[in-house]
Amino acid sequence: MHFGTGQLVLGSRSLHAREAGDAGWRSFTLRPGLALRLSDHAGVGQLELHDDAALLAVWRYTLGLQVQAVRLVEQFERQIASLDHRHTPAPAEDTATCPICSSPMPEDSEECPVCARELQTPPSTWVLLRLGRFAKPYRWQLIIGFMLTLASTAATLVPPYLTIPLMDNVLIPFQNGQRIDPGYVMLLLSGLLGSALLAWSLGWARTWLLALVSERIAADLRTSAFEHLLTLSLDYFGAKRTGDLMARIGSETDRISVFLSLHALDFITDVLMLAMTATILFSVNPWLALVTLLPLPFIGWMIHVVRDRLRHGFEKIDRVWGDVTNVLADTIPGIRVVKAFAQEGREARRFRDANQQNLAVNDKLNKTWSLFSPTVSLLTDIGLLVVWAFGIWQVSRGEITVGVLTAFIAYIGRFYGRLDSMSRIVSVTQKAASGAKRIFDILDHVSNVPEPTQPVPIGALQGRVTMESVGFRYGNRAVIRGLDLEIRPGEMIGLVGHSGSGKSTLVNLICRFYDVSDGAIRVDGVDIRRFAVADYRRHIGLVLQEPFLFFGTIAENIAYGRPDASRAEIVAAARAAHAHEFILRLPLGYDSLVGERGQGLSGGERQRISIARALLIDPRVLILDEATSSVDTETEKEIQKALDNLVQGRTTIAIAHRLSTLRKADRLVVMERGRVVEVGPHDELMARQGAYWRLYEAQARRVDDDGDDRETVPAPTHAAHPAGQD
């Protein structure tokens, strides 16, 4: 433990080290198989250099240099990986793997069948028409915006028409020796200026109005998608990634907003400009107008071909971008686990691989787009050249004047410019269609826990829970089979059994997070599927093994189920949950901020806040899911006191692997493979020497083997039933 100044330097080909007192440097040539491992213990960091056979060197440092050490290891791993890449032959095409999940990739396929679990269909631009129901509340603003667009477009077409008299009546006669009429010239120039100012003012008004409307449409779409998402059952969330859902509701709605406020407006303007310009061209000279339209069939055919490729391309881009956001959504909330297992490099590689896949898909799409856009420009330039040639020929024959040809060229510049703009809008339209499809996938999804058409009003619940031949399946796998159980009002039931026996699933069914596949669950004799979901769950209190706290104050978290609760009610709930004392020790008491997911509080403190939250809503049915399994003995005693206050007078269903937490249960329900195999008090079940006895004995042996002196098995005491109870 003597420290001195040393140096560790990573070069392009070697790792060099010189410790305090050394006269020279030690060098280690970088090669495949070399590994630099980082660890720390008791405030001292350690770097170990290994190869496949032995430990080559060890360097220790104070943790003040931890940031530099982590950077060194990351760079070392990158350089070794590059050496591995150079020395390893490229895999054959038939053994390609997905950079995200490392699954085998089919030949000639850019898409991993494991990552793309859903059957994906390319979005059609017709899906954008479904935005009409969100635009309906703003129809009058849209009508006004359309009229402003029509007027501003017409105003922009005035200047080219004024060039005809300006050329034929002013400039050409002047070249032939005639005198210029200043008043006539000022009139024409005033017309040019006036039309420009009118087009500017109308364009500003329509852009501002339609931008406001598009933002509101996107906001309504975002709100509707999120509100509908909240109504979906848990099985939907189990099949989706958090990052993907965030991207859909966040970035996709922003993309649609930009499309509606900018590109859709430009598209309408382009269509009006083309229609009006074509009308003027045919009215001036039909033959020259026909020559002007020659490139249109070729451009239309190209748009059709490219649109199909873009449809598939943007749909793939959305999916691979979802992979990028999924890595973020996994890593950031789980950053403590990442750091605890020193997997920063691995997560960085996951993100880099996902980002690289996103880059590859974008590169392929950009390859198509980069060819399409210049080709359209080339066709319009050729069209302009043909118009010049045909126009000069007509001028030479005296069929049109120079002024008419000049106006034609001016109109054609606008015509081809809008045509080029319309071809470019294909890209943003397909992007918006892809985003709209992903949002409507959420809106079209029907919850597996539907609301009843005529819900039964919930009065004062007694809390009698009856399960009749209940069955439940996850897909094709039966989890609960033919389960019958009746829980009396105010009774405490303990659910015990091995992992996978169906305890948590049964609780989820009682909470109606899922609906039963067979049979029925009744509360006070009424099938819970006949209650409105939100009304029913307001009478259910839930305390989980890992309580979830939101970013906000302690008081806001306790009052989450009753936001209108007074401070006195919040404090009373905290006192009953044995949380008041530790809350007062916090810097701001009940107004102290809780970090995301309860960061800054211990597990026991989070659990007691969770119990206070359940107490505040005063539920008739209480669910305790492993409420004390992850805390120490002293904390468990505090939580147990809080639970004693919580269960009084309520129908309680408690899940526990640690049997001591069920010592006050009226009855124990033993489950195996989705069925109830035993029901009764502790003493009775022990006397039977059945499934519960085996669980009890196995846990007792485990305690003896571990040398644990805590009370782990329930005492043979049972709470008496309230008077008048069945």
Automatic annotation (TrEMBL):
Domain ABC transporter, residue spans: 465-698
Subcellular localization, as worded in the UniProt entry: Cell membrane
Topology with respect to the bilayer: Multi-pass membrane protein
GO cellular component: plasma membrane
Species for this entry: Leptothrix cholodnii (strain ATCC 51168 / LMG 8142 / SP-6) (Leptothrix discophora (strain SP-6))
Keywords: ATP-binding, Cell membrane, Membrane, Nucleotide-binding, Transmembrane, Transmembrane helix, Transport
Domain ABC transmembrane type-1: 143-431
Protein name: ABC transporter-related protein
